[in-house]
Amino acid sequence: MIDTIEKEENIISEEEAAQYDRQIRLWGLDAQKRLRGSRVLLVGLRGLGAEVAKNLILAGVKGLTLLDHEQVTEESRRAQFLIPVDADGQNQAQASLERAQLLNPMVEVKADTDAVESKPDDFFFQFDAVCLTRCSKDLMVRVDQLCASRNIKVFCGDVYGYHGYMFSDLGQEHHFVEEKPKVVKGSNEANDGPEAKKPKIDPNVTTMVKKTISFCSLKEALEVDWTSEKAKSSLKRTPADYFLLQGAVSERCSAQELFLLRRPEGQRGGRLLRIQISGPWRTRRDVWRCMCAHEAPWSLSSASGRRHPNLSFGQYLCIAVCHTTTSAKNNQNILSTHS
Fold this sequence. Notes:
Keywords: Nucleus, Ubl conjugation pathway. Heterodimer of SAE1 and UBA2/SAE2. The heterodimer corresponds to the two domains that are encoded on a single polypeptide chain in ubiquitin-activating enzyme E1. Interacts with UBE2I. By secondary structure, the protein is α/β, with parallel strands linked by helices. The protein folds into three domains: 2-169, NAD(P)-binding Rossmann-like Domain (Rossmann fold), CATH 3.40.50; 174-213, no CATH class; 223-336, no CATH class. Helices cover 31% and strands 24% of the residues. The protein has 13 helices and twelve strands. The strands form three sheets. The chain has a seven-stranded mixed beta sheet with strand order 1-4-3-2-5-6-7, with helices on both faces. Helix 4 packs parallel to helix 6 (92-103) and helix 11 packs parallel to helix 13. The longest helix is centred in the first third of the chain and has 13 residues, at 47-59.
């Protein structure tokens, strides 16, 4: 079921040019026209989804579809600013529609109350970009693969308390232009000093450089083989939170089920002081396997009992928590570390 507030088909009008003047001066009229012709699907209307909706509507896309099958609760209402205070029990997408439309009457905003899992493959093909929030790993991988076959841009993200992630798949060949200041050659005169001979940047003159970048799929990003030599070399540059979020994405937990407490800056030891995970996580061992690290955390330790040299303190701790079985006594697992 879809509720729609219809907008007339049009291009950049004088009214729109005046409203979007600031961003047109930032990225140009052609970019704004492409933005104005884009239709976007946004899945999930909690805190992150509401922020994404606001930014897309104010930027001036042609159309935005808000898709969410869940009902408004006091918790979800307090998590975002589009739902009225008297909307408890209503559908979250429908409850967010009116305020979302008021942000920019020039954008066509729709509310879809169906579950995204029930949507057929061709449903996603009507959009130029798809934004997924609060979705399961399997669903995100499925939608990403579908959209890749039609060159549809995909963005995934979620928030767990003070931690979160964002993933983007813009295709195998994403073309864009980058504005760079012009470099002026230095003087070649023999009598000039070293400073005069150095190339200088002219801030008043810029050139547009065409570039192409390739994005990997979400499936590839989540299935890195950390036992390979190539992956081991990048471990030190990989944030510890990546490993914790592997567990959060595999079995989507709430903010109340995931906590990371950090040591104050400058204090001895690793950054992570304690990780606490509660809730019936049935897939901790599956999380470990999906990371293609077939050894248990303790087998990654050296003979001296120290952790594996390729794993940072935070990474080792996050992996250990994702692997440990939940205590049957209190359904809670806590790992604490000391300097």
